[in-house]
Amino acid sequence: MPRTYHIWTIGCQMNEADSRRLAQQLEFAGFQPVDRAEAAEVVVLNTCVVRQQAEDKAVGRLGALKAVKAARPDMTVALMGCMVGMKEAPALKKRFPFVDVFMPPSDTAPLLDFLHDRGLFDEIRRAEAGARALRDAVQDEDLPLPIREQGAVTAHVPVVLGCSHACTFCVIPYRRGAERSRPMPDILREVESLAAQGVREVMLLGQIVDRYGTDFGGGTDLSALLRAVAAIDGIRRVRFLTSHPNYMTDEILETVASSDIICPQIEVPIQAGNDEVLDRMRRGYTVDQYRRLIARIRSFMPDAAIHTDIIVGFPGETPEQFEDTVRLIEELRLEKVHLSKYSERPKTIAARRMPDDVPEQEKQERWQRIEDLQTRILDEKNRRLRGQTVSVLVEDHYKGKWRGRTPHGKLVFFEDARTQRGDETLVRIDWTGPYSMIGVPADARRDLPLLVV
Ligand code: SAH
User: Fold this and answer.
1) Exposed e or buried b for every residue in 136-162, given b needs 16+ CB within 10 A?
2) Is the CB of 168 under 6 A from ligand 1?
3) Average pLDDT, stretch 280-289?
4) What per-residue confidence (pLDDT) applies to 447?
5) Residue of the nearest CA to atom 2 in ligand 1?
6) Cβ proximity of 317 and 272 under 8 Å
7) For ligand 1, is residue 269 a contact (CB within 6 Å)?
8) Which of 27, 34, 169, 348 is the most exposed place for a label (fewest CB within 10 A)?
9) What's the CA-to-centroid distance between 53 and ligand 1, angstroms?
């Protein structure tokens, strides 16, 4: 009887990557995925606490699991991710005594040890590998993709764990620990293994990914890592996020601009368009410095897809300060704005010193203003792609159409009988909206029989 697991994931790409790693390890140890938590022997909730809403969802899931666990005490319930953080486990154990295992972000060892100690690794594999060797192998990087991800064209790869900045709104440093870069050989080995399994695009992840390698004290940096990853056989596209505005070097931009494989997509969150707010957020730059950064990125890549994050309704943000943000978004015309309403997070500097004084209704209105503005900007920008031919890396088949992205991260749908997942297809764009576009394979037109009139 194969053993079964179910992983529920919420939050950032880093969590998705952590869940993939855990799924690989569990499958290597003989577990198989099932769709419903209620039917699984091992249930993992991989949690996010960056905003209250995400935390509420995890607490809701936990509540539902409590009854299941009461009916089936042999089931293993594991809580993972930022809710657990580096030191929340004892308090959580009191609050949710039915949870068996607590795993800090990116750390799967507690669950593996728990299962191993209880002899829950699959018998056949155990006999093959010997218990000790099996546990060591499970911790290894070069595992086959989990069943659900087989055929995956894209994969996330964490390269910088944790964060040592102290932005006043942000809980991540408290939950993911101090910044540490993964050694380059480990990362390359992981990407080689993914490429051998058919992955064509990797997204390198870090809270401040442009600081990659700074904790090694020189020798290697994000440019070197990007070049090495892009050189791996089978890898057609490389992206990276998130970059902090203060660490984006000319060398990184030059590396991206001069490569056909590293995508011209730069994610640099500004968070607010007013200097006083930025100062209270402790972001370490001014609006004008950010403007110059955008100009510098565009001097290397005039059409770069620049993405940003904005928080509306930060403590003390006045209507006038918010208008500065609106004007900046209008001025810069970026490719994507990830928008959040400020959410007070425990232990952060803002939670301790700055009252959450912008009413929810006002936050919602500010959010909608920027959402509407950015939708209009994107609609206008994307219209310019009509009639142009773009290269699409095909990720999957969705509602009867192939779906993939351009190097600039634009979502494209098209129909074609010959295309397969993982293909890079040239597509001529016929229709565009703010968030996706539709086209036809560029060579399909040539294949049409000639009409003789
Ligand atoms: N490390 C990245 C961002 C990580 S969190 C950076 O330096 O910018 C992803 C985004 O969530 C942030 O950019 C921010 O816009 C949003 N966010 C973080 N904390 C938040 C909070 N307390 N309330 C609302 N949004 C928040």
Assistant:
1) ebbeeeebebbeebeebbbbbbbbbbb
2) no
3) 98
4) 53
5) 207
6) yes
7) yes
8) 34
9) 13
Q: What is the pTM of this model?
A: 0.95
pLDDT higher than 50, residue 18: yes
User: How far is residue 385 from each of residues 382, 406, 415, 432, measured CA to CA in Å?
Assistant: 5, 11, 18, 8
d(CA 145, CA 155): 10
How far is 113 from 95, CA to CA, in rounded Å?
23
* The two structure tokens encoding residue 293: 């950064």
Ligand 1 center from residue 98 Cα (angstroms): 31
Helix axes 131-139, 109-117, angle to 10 degrees: 160
Domains, in order of start, for the chain: 3-137 (3.40.50.12160), 149-383 (3.80.30.20), 389-441 (2.40.50.140)
State yes or no: pLDDT of 453 exceeds 50.
no
- Residue 361: in which H helix or E strand, if any? helix 360-383
2, burial (CB in 10 Å: exposed 0-12, middle 13-18, buried 19+): exposed
What atom in ligand 1 is closest to the CA of residue 345?
Answer: 22
Q: Hey, what are 266's tokens?
A: 């730069």
- Rounded (10°) angle between helices 360-383 and 319-332: 10
- For a mutational test of ligand 1's pocket, the pick from 50, 283, 358, i.e. the residue with the most ligand atoms closer than 8 A to its C-beta, is 50
Q: Tokens standing for 208?
A: 């401040």
Structure confidence by residue, pLDDT tens digits, 357-398: 999 999 999 999 999 999 999 999 999 999 999 999 999 999
Helix%, strand%, coil% for the chain, nearest 5: 40, 20, 40
For residues 288-313, average pLDDT: 98
- Rounded to whole angstroms, the Cα distance separating 149 from 22 reads 12
Q: Is the pLDDT of residue 162 over 60?
A: yes
Shortest-distance Cα residue to atom 13 of ligand 1: 309
Q: In 172-294, where do the E strands start and end?
A: 180-181, 201-205, 237-241, 265-267
**pLDDT, mean of residues 65-90:** 96
User: Is there a contact between 234 and 200 (Cβ–Cβ < 8 Å)?
Assistant: yes
Output the CA 50–ligand 1 centroid distance in Å.
7
Q: Is the pLDDT of residue 81 over 50?
A: yes
Consecutive H or E run containing 405:
strand 401-405
